Batch of 2 targets.
Target 1
Amino acid sequence: MEDTVMRATLVNAEKFVGVANGALKMAARDVRVFYGESEALHGVDLDIYENEVLAFIGPSGCGKSTFLRCLNRMNDTIDGCRVTGRIELDGEDIYDRSLDVVLLRARVGMVFQKPNPFPKSIYENIAYGPRLHGLASGRAELDDIVERSLQRAGLWEEVKDRLEQPGTGLSGGQQQRLCIARAIAVSPEVILMDEPCSALDPIATAKVEQLITELSETYTIVIVTHNMQQAARVSRRTAFFHLGNLVEVDDTTKIFTSPSDGRTEDYITGRFG
Amino acid sequence: MHNDDASAPRTDPSTQRRLVERSLARRHGAEKRFRAAGLAAVFFGLGMVALLFASILAKGVPAFWQATVVTEVYFDPEIIKVDPRPVAQPGETPAQLHEREMAWQTQLTMANWNRIIENTLAAHLPEVTDARARARLRQLVTSGERFVLRDRVIADPALIGQRLTLKLLADANVDVWLKGNIDRSLPDSQQQLAPDVRAWADQLHERGVIQMKFNTTLFGNPDSRSSLASAGLAGAFVGSLFMMAIVILLAVPVGVASAVYLEEFAPRNRFTDLIEVNINNLAAVPSIIFGLLGAAVFINWFHMPLSAPIVGGLVLSLMTLPTVIIATRSTLQAIPPSIRQAALGIGASKVQMILHHVLPLALPGILTGAIIGVAQAIGETAPLLLIGMSAFVAAVPATPFDQSTALPVQIYLWQGNELRNFFEARTSAAIIVLLGLMLSLNALAIWLRKRFEKRW
Amino acid sequence: MNNWVLICVLLMLMALAYQFGLARSRSVAGQGAARMHSRPGYYGLLVALWCGLPALAVFLLWTLFEPGIIRSVVLNQLPPDLAGLQGNELEVLLRRIEQIASGFGVSDQPAAFELAAAERMRSLQNTGRLAMIASMAVLCVAGLVWTLRRIDPQLRARNQVESVFQALLVISSTIAILTTIGIVLSMVGEALHFFRFVNPAEFFFGTVWNPRFSTTGAADQGQFGLLPLLWGTLMVSIIALLVAVPAGLMTAVYMAEYAPAWLRAVAKPVIEVLAGVPTIVYGFFALITVGPFFSVLGQTVGIDIRATSALTAGVVMGIMIIPFVSSLSDDIITQVPRAMRDGSLGLGATKSETVRKVVLPAALPGIVGAFLLAASRAIGETMIVVLAAGNSPILHANPFEAVSTVTVTIVNQLTGDTDFASPQSLVAFALGLTLFVITLSLNIVALYIVRKYREQYE
């Protein structure tokens, strides 16, 4: 089994290498997802490189979010969902028994479609992850993490005087940046974003997009988006999913100017979607 | 925006990994303990259900069989000396006939029935000849049996002089002794029965004269205090049925009507808000308060009869009303507005829409709610105690206006009986009957729901 | 004529009236001048209602008031020397008169005045009966004829029938209000009555409960201090909550977050069975199983535990409210949005960390509401405490000893012979009022909190 997968990695390697300027961070081979009996994802092979922004696009129900949730095993929380195939993070199989899902999620963070701050203070929202994982050894260090995370998410100036107020009291865009700050407070290596701007207005969206670009200097970012302009603006590479298949993955510019698959072209030119 | 690398909150991956891994053992331990606590809570609940039912069943099931003397009884005309039964004579008022009939019955009652029972038992134990010992033989049979024999003769005077094989209930203490519900090694001073009576009981039991027979008394007789072995549930059961009927006739229609009004007609204003808050609170008012209401209003102001199922039924109806209203309202709320719009759209009036479309669809839900409410009501004790239903009633009520008890009240009365050895089992048996009644009602509700449930 | 027969006749007449109305409306429609306003059935119903309802009202009022009127007329005509008769003797006399009047007779020789009174009563009853039937018949026919003649295309029969229907609905929904008013009035009325015997301050702040018996003497001999009872109630309720809250909450958490579907399908209904068991059964269970168990347990550990004690009653009551707490908490926990859980799990929290640090804090207001409702349940619970708490209204802090509660005392004071004149009975209403106010305020606060909580996630 392992051998076949490795061979597949070698054979297919060139097909997936886009602009491979970073080292290989995550690799998916023949990933299939089942909800009960029905197969929702039909064997996806995909490589993700360090410090890149990779966008997943495709019509709704195409499996892009499902695949994203495989990358930090969030699908485990759904009853009746089963994943086969192999996903590696730095060469380790993340579905291997020896790998702790807690550690995996600490390394591969996630931001969700709808801002979901906890009904706690802004400070507590950020401090939640570091506290759980024991990342800070004292109050001062925790304060430091909170401040730096908020700064990194560009929220510090807006909230530094009201850290004790509930996170749910912020505006939608602020809430989403709070959630991003919450994710980076854990110091993940990869951040998964599931349509992070779909619930936001254009101005808030612009802020979050700018943030994504900045964060990509430090983190590997995988973003699912409905919005092709967004994919074009923020990502270096784009993967197009359709009906549970990964149709193609390539440089974003290539995908949007001369895709190699007809379905991709049909989608980006608006024939369906 | 801040952007300089110094502010990047990046613990480097290996440090992060080391710190997280260090916390894992502790956290997984906590996870396991938490999960175990949850499972323990679930099993505590399940265990309590099991314990409750097991202890009631273990105590109560034996009470469905009762020690019974199966024997031939001779209605000796030498002992039962009575005039012929009076018949109506011309020119006599019914009151006078009644008077003579009563006199005849008194005469019959005065006959020495104890002697008949003594003779009956002595036939099986011919070695008992001493007069005092013979008198003690009577302790084997419960005292109420002499009235049972008398009533047989009242019903059919031709029995006098005949021999009949009958089942006489053994005394409660004999039942306790034979079932081993009393410690057999206790000294005589702590035993309820004299040593020779105990020996006779064992002897007759061995010979099959005293048998464990299915306890029809429990279902056929009303309560009794003088003859404990013949105490039964019939009075309480009928009382409970009367109350159940009253609750069904009052609480269910009124409850459904108010729910329909509140859900379909009532304008949103302060008055309807008030009704709404009021109903929610009424549902949580302790049942005993309804008992106080019944005592003050029905008994003290309206002078309704004490201990009557009609009053109990009224009190329980008021108590059940909020349950029915709440259940009906939630059923009505679950019916999609599209149905209503469709009916109104083709020109039905609001009343027509409700009667022809909404109520038929809501019926299973309404019935389920109503049955659950009724089941709750018949298990209720406290309010009934306050309207005098804890009085001892030795008759089966014929109408809802007669004195009566109810099943749960009967349980309350029996658990307090001094003859604990006997009544612990009897009470458990009564509980089994009550639970059986409630479970069948609930099963009916579940069946209705499963059979007719619609998902929108 | 028997009352039941009368009702049946009335119903048959109504059915007949329905047919008349139907036929009449059809024939009016057949003349074809204009389109009928309503369908024929509504004309039929309208006629039936007008035919039956007034007669029914007369019947009800008549049967309600006639016996009282006849009785007072008969009493007025009795010889003056009997006018002073009171209570039982009067009842016996009336009973005899009724028996003579009904023809059943009495066994001895009736006195002349008795015969006269019976004669009077019989004639009154007969006349009354005839008058009632006659007036019912007149109303029936009048209603029938009048409504039949009104039938024409403009008559809005459906609307009239429907407003009768609606009126019935409105009357029904006021019954709930009337019940509350009845509760408040009777409690307050009788409690005020009680406070004429006993100073309210003595009642609410008294530390001794010793009401004596109403037969042994005047009211001032008894002491009606509420505090021992309130303390007992509090002790039992706290023990009950200490059992029910952890068990119920953990059950709800396990069911909502961990349990596999099959376990949920089995365990949930089984645990809810606990909620359907009558409280008297719990009382008995406490008395014969749990109490002796604690007593033996106490002996082995070396503590003196009474079989009937605050502990026994509290623990069993706790078991009773487990399903109450767990199903309410379950509702509330499952209302916490999934996004909240995902947010926490996505950061690498374990399931229990998510539950303890995110789900439960988010659900806290709702859960507090559920606890208050459970507390109000515990405070108002009666039968378990009557059987298992030992009934000892003394202020002490030992949960292993017997206590008494407000509800137990209500039962004790009002069972047996109930006369509404002695403070010993009336105190039950003062206690009931206290209980009602406490549980009502708990409920109002709890329902308010739960409602606010629901709105938060809707």
Target 2
Amino acid sequence: MKQTSYIILENKPLTINVFRMMLRGDTSPIIAPGQFINIQLDGLYLRRPISVCDVEGDRLTIIYKVVGRGTERLSRMAPGAALDCFSGLGNGYGLTCAGENPVLVGGGVGVPPLYLLAKKLLEQGKRVTVCLGFNTAEEIFYSDEFKALGCEVRVSTVDGSYGAKGFVTAVLPDKPSYYYACGPEPMLKAVFGALDCSGQLSFEARMGCGFGACMGCTCETLTGYKRICKDGPVMRKEELLWNAQR
Amino acid sequence: MERTKVNLLGIELDNPVIPASGTFGYGREFAELYDINILGSFSFKGTTLHPRLGNPLPRIAEAPAGMLNAVGLQNPGVDRVISEELPNLAKIFHKPVMANVSGFSIEEYAETCKRLDTCEQVGWLEVNISCPNVHHGGMSFGTDPAQAAAVTKAVKAVTTKPVIMKLSPNVTDIAAIAKACADAGADGVSLINTLMGMRINLNTRRPVIANVTGGLSGPAVFPVALRMVYQVAKAVDIPVIGMGGVSSAEDVIEMMMAGATAVEIGAANLADPFACKRIIEDLPAVMDKYHINQLTDIIGGAL
């Protein structure tokens, strides 16, 4: 991890409450898809962790949903402003076990980190299927961007206003070689239950420090206590306590 | 460096800056960022006799000028601290370290301290009788003078190391607790632990923190902490370690003027992992600004 300053190039809404922010600066601390940056915001004590959506040279993209005061403040930041960040936090997704046709499963604001992951897997010549779940058609973002990369994209909405009606588990492919998931915990649990192949899941937590010092986001796994910010946010399917509950 | 030296219970510190327990882990994450040997010392993660996972998530909430935490004393237990964490720590930190101890019974406090007493690296035992985030233990020993004295006595009986009792601000009269500890043989006191607080999520209408309540820390608590350090320093003759919302070299000096011999830095490490480094580097210039030749000259200056 490294403390660095990013200049905001663009900060635009993708939906009514999901924003994309393009940043410029030192992206070298980001070494894997699924890592996050921790952003200092005026008037707030704790930094706000936001996953990295894309990295290209000195450009970095984050996509965030306005859910509280931190993200609300972030949404009002104008291009040209500088963000004090700790960059390259968390373990990120491992690419080596993906197999030939991995599936990437994202729910809502869990979708962004899958974008850089999809790019990396495609670079390795994988056939990538992306399953995206949203509540309504109005909330959909980035399905076209995944298509443009060359992924097969399947979309579900809870209310059926676009794509398959229901949760994202409704559109999962039959026999993926591996899965990567990011989204709210009920979605992760549903994906865990629905797919037999091995996989990696990225978890969300309210964090204190974001770099492993405060134990504010520790969870129990079959391989010991894990700090979601430092040992995660990505966990291997095999280490989740859900295995013992099956 | 000579100007910033202080003596804490027989051990000389290069400066009075000590990261507070629970905000610095075992130093590893910070050693990746800077050489932590610039610190006066540090107080490692609160240790109990048995391993503890701590409380369910969420454990953290934002607060105005601060934060709430309810980690709940997550730690691998004293035996693993001694066999794994301390040897690892010795590779990155070469000064005496403060062992922070918590417990759920007087016997447990004593047993944990007894085991840590054998560790050469440990310069002081900081006995936490003030954790607000565990039930049936922790803070309950720090809110009653008789209980606080009983823990002090039990720990003093099993160690030759200096014993510093870490006090809770969640009491009517913190000076009375400090006095009870001092009378029972405590070598020093440190204060304040966090102030009990809570937040509610307006969307879910439920407490943000799974434990419902959490401990408030950060700049929000600094004036309260300073007042309590002042009151305790007036009431006892043993050294006082001040903490609570300290985030700058100026805050360190203010704490020392209120009676602190050394100063612990807590929440600031989480918001800014370079906080202690910055404070240590800023100290000489801030001392110059206020015409302070030696830090030891100002301890208790405002009393």
